[in-house]
Each structure stands twice: as C-alpha cells, then as structure tokens.
Amino acid sequence: GDIGFIEEFCDLADRYNALTYLDEVHAVGLYGESGGGVAQRDGLSDQIDVIQGTLGKAFGVVGGYIAASALLIDYIRCFGSGFIFTTAMPPATAAGALASVRHVKQDVQARIRLHRNVNVVKSRLTEAGLPVLPNPSHIVPVMIYDAKRCREASHLLLDKYDIFVQHINHPTVPVGTERLRITPTPLHTDEMIDYLIDALVSVFDELDLVRQPVGESAA
C-alpha cells in the first residue's frame, strides 16, 4: 500500500542525468483523471521515462505494457530478449484489453466510488478496533503478525463467510508483519462492507487474534 516519492526521485534523476522507471501496475485505472496512475494524478507523467502497467487488475484482462518514448520502445523491441522471444497476445485478448482501457479511462465515477469505499472500509475497520495498517493507497492491510494464524484467518473467512481475502506472508512481507490484504472495489455496497467487518470481527474472536495497534511491538 505504499506510494513512493515520485517527484523527489524525478528531481534526483534530473540532477544526475538518470532514467526513471515507474511501476504503476497497482495504480493504473484507479488514480488520475483518466486512470493513468499516481504519476498522472500528481502531474508527473511527463517526467517519467518508462511507466510499467498491467492489463490485469483494474483492466481485468491479462498482459502488461510499458509506456515510453518511441525511441526507447524501439530499442527494447530490438534488444529486449524477454520481449523478442515472447509469443504475441491473441487478437481476442488484445481487443478485450483495448475495450477495457477505453471504458476505464472515461469511467470517472467508478474511481470516485472506489476511493469512497476504501475510506469507508478503513474507517469501519478502525471503529471495530481491528489493526488496520495506515497507508495512502487503496490496498487495506489488516495486521495478523503471524503466518500460520494469517492463513487460518483467510481460510476461515472463505469457508465460513464466503469471503476471499488473500493472506500475505513472508517473503512478500517481513516475518512478523503478516497481514490480510483487502482491496475494495467500486461495486462493493455498504451492506457488503458491513458483512465483511462483522465477519472479520468474528474471525478475530474465534481465532483469538491479538488486536494489537499498528506500530506497537508484537508480544
């Protein structure tokens, strides 16, 4: 859920004549006037040499891309072995991706609903006394602090409440910072959010999970 210091990195790159490469796979479709990502939201897109995105996640298809100058793209086409030996995307997939990109770019209301739902989920988790990790993005981590218990919580949510929430363990995160990762969408209703919070409270109670405030040392 972290967002990097993009402007500061761009300033450093300008100072030392370096290239900038920004991974926006979690942000495209969700931030910016037309869903261009955090760099677009912050007015920094023209300062980034290469922006990496995905056609999965917000666009709901499959594949990925980079956006850069024509010269840099042509260089990668000629010398990027990972690209040269990759099979081309099927035409039907490309058509689906194009339709999705066109839709997401113009659907401003979906982005507004998304961020509204993110704020509601974070607020409701805090009100329920659950250890939500503060961050500036749409990813909402609920801290469990133990790999085995984190997996158990994820399985219980699915088996008992029909809610799938991915458990995130080492090596994705450091040992002792295991968490459930919640990602609200524009289509989640307030009733769905209430059901999620009630289910999480029940899971914490049933598994006797520690509702340790974020920032305090684990016991």
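the 2nd protein, sequnce then structure:
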Amino acid sequence: MLKHASMAFFQRSRRSATGFGVLLFSLIAVGFFGGAHWELKERVGWHSAAVQPESPRFNVGLTERAGHHDEVLGALLYSLHTMPNVRKVTVYRNNFRYKFEEIISPFYRSPTEPAQVMLDSLLDLNHPDPLDIIILSTGERTIEAIMPILIEAFDARPPDHKFVVLCVVHDAGRLHELDFIAPLAARGALRYVTLNQAAQRTMNEGIFAAATRHPEAHFDRVPIYAFAPIFPVQGLRPHKKRILSNVVVQGNMDQGRRDYKLLFHDLMNELSSSVFITLLLVSTYIHAQFLFTENAEFWGYKPLGEGINGSYVPLSPSFGLEPFLVHLAGGTVRDLVIPQELSNVVQVHQSLPYPEYFALMNNMDLVLPSFAKEGYYKTSASSSVAAAVIAEVPILSSRRLLYCYQYLDERNAIILPSGTSEIEAVRLLRTGVMPDTGKLFEWEVIYNQTNMEHMRQEVYESNAKTLTQAFSS
C-alpha cells in the first residue's frame, strides 16, 4: 500500500510539473511573439532602471563681481551646458565685455542678471525657483562681501532646501588664511575650486591650518577641486606649415606678471650676435636651407646698422624669410618698456574684442609663458596656459609647468629644458630643432589638431565630472 501511495504521489507531481512546464512555455512564447517580454521586465524594475537618466535638478547661479576672468566664466558655462543634472543656469553679472557673449553663444544665450538680483532671490523664502548651487567665479574677490547674506539665507531655508557655494579661487595665497569663511564651512555648504593643481595643493595646506584655528568649522572636511578653465571656440583654423615666426606673450602687460625685460634682453642679444647659423626647414611641402653670417638676418631683419631710427627693419620680402615677431596680447598696460631697437619686432594688441583675440591667438606659432613670479607655480593660475589650449597653439612649457597645470600635456606643449631661456628655445625651433631632444621639429606632429582635440575632450569630461562631484558631495 505504501508503494502504491508513493507511486500515486509521483504521478501527481509529474502531472503538476508537466502542467507548470506548459504554462512556462506559454509565457515565454507570449513574451517572444506577443510583446509581453518588456512588460515583464518593467514590472520587476530592470528596464526603467537601466535606461532612465537622472532628471535635471540643479538650478545654478553663477556670479562674477570682479568684472574679468572671462575664460573661467566661459569654462564653467560650457561644463554646466554639458551636464545632464543641471536644468537651469543664470549668470549674475552686469554685462559681458569685449563681445564675450559672441564667443559663448553656442552654449549660453540667456541674458545676464544684475548681481544684486541673485542676493535678493536668496533672501526671498517664497521664491518660486530657488537656487541650488551658487558659483562665485572670482571667489576671493566676492565671498567676504556677501558672506552675511549667504549665512542668513542658508539658515532661513528648510533642511531639505539648502544650497551649496562653490568658491572659485584664483589666488590661493590670498584666501586660505581668511577666517571669515568659517561660518559657511561649519554649515557644510562650502566647496573650493582652484584652477590648477599647484593652487589646489596650496589650498589644502591652508585648509588644514584653518582647521586648527577653527575646529568648530571642520575646515579639513571642505572639498577642494581642480578645474581647467578651457572651453571650445568656433572658427579656429589649422596651422600652416612654415618657419616658426610668431610667438605671443599673453596676459596683462605688467612687468610684475611677465618678465618682458628678460625677454627683450635675450632677444636683443640674439639679434646683435654675429655667428654662422644654418636654418634647415624640412616638411612635407617645403625643403629649404639658409646660411647666415648675421643673427639679425636669421630672425628676418637687416643688421641694426642698416635699420631706421635705431630700430631693426625686416628684410626684403624677396629674401624669402618671414620676420620673427613677438606679440603682446592683453588688457592693461603697466610698466611696459619696449626698447627702440625692437619697435618693429614687438607688436602690442591691447583689449581686443574676444573674437579678434582668439583669432590672433590661433594664428600664433607658440605661446611663451615668460612668468615673472613664482605664484603661477604655487598659488595662482595663469590665463596663458588656458589660452594656449583654447586657441590650439602649443605653449613652451617646462616640466614644472606640466606638473602644476595637469590639464596640459605634451600634445599641446613644447618642452623647455632646464637652463634654456625661452629665446634660446625659440631659436632652436626656428632652425628646425626641438630644444628638448635635438630631433627634427616636425610641424605635422606638433600642430596635430586631432591630438589637441582629444586632449581638450578629456579635459571637458573631467571638468563636468568635477562639478558633478562638487554639487553632490
């Protein structure tokens, strides 16, 4: 009897299993042929979790109260434009200068608002669309003046509607010892953004010192990010293959910022020397060799004794050698003295509208940093490095510069060896020799737009990730 009972149970189980198999096959068949397959996935949450992006949620206010540092503003706006979690961006600034709105129009077209409008909106608890993120694009010139309003507005908001303040630091030497920021740090609302890795390291040191003075503020928990101030500019042209003839020193024309005296001194020494120089230019399209007994001729000028009014004058165009020019491109002019001998060699471009400025930069063969102070390697960021990357022009860079500005690499730089002056390096490049290796200066490799574009895309992606992390941390 026990045996028969066991057999009966087995038969019932087999019939049940067979029935379940038929049902399962029917469901699968309906799924493949009747369209129910994706509905089943949605019910268990697979499909929606896999394809639904995060909805835009950040309303960002970007204020620039100092009236300059436009390249930082442009880089921030471009990054915000590419971020899917940003739904709205407003620039609080009286206006753009030098036609900057034309440069950023591909990714920002909204009108600006006065800076006071942002402060008023922060204090309005009934504002229909309050800011989530406040970016001070020149933080050390802005944050102290508006700190009372920031604290009042932050404390008045409910816990689930607090805002975050990103303070972009241009000079870490000015800001990291200022104690007035402690109340904002204590509330967990402060994020620092520097414009190169050197300033980021300096800020970290300052933050740790501030944490000792203000343990209640938890300064050592304040995040510090590095952000590269670059953005795309339309209308840039590929470089022509030629002898290196146009270099630019970019930035405010101030002896305290750029060492013009040393640059001019070295250039005059080069022009006045009398040595044998062979210039060998070899490229896909040009094969030429020149032999000079006067350095002035090598640089494309007649000897000074054949000049006019004590100035070097260019050789006749029939000589076939483009004269070497040093371009100075910037805003203010302070303590700039150009020797009379170089009046035809040095060209000044002051306060150009941005479309003309970037066209000029793009037409250069090389950017010379010519830094006059250590701060560009420690506490602050030079706009010259960013300008070179934006304009697709190589910069003459020491390895120390690459270390401090890590968004720059050898795809957009020509290495300046230790102990070599900028003018010595330019002379080697003009002869067709790389100053760091002694190898042939290959124009097609140095001015490879594809490599430069790949580098910039990497930086754009890194910038967007940096801001995303800063918003959410």
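The two ends are 72 Å apart (CA to CA). The domain at 58-229 is CATH 3.40.50 (Rossmann fold).
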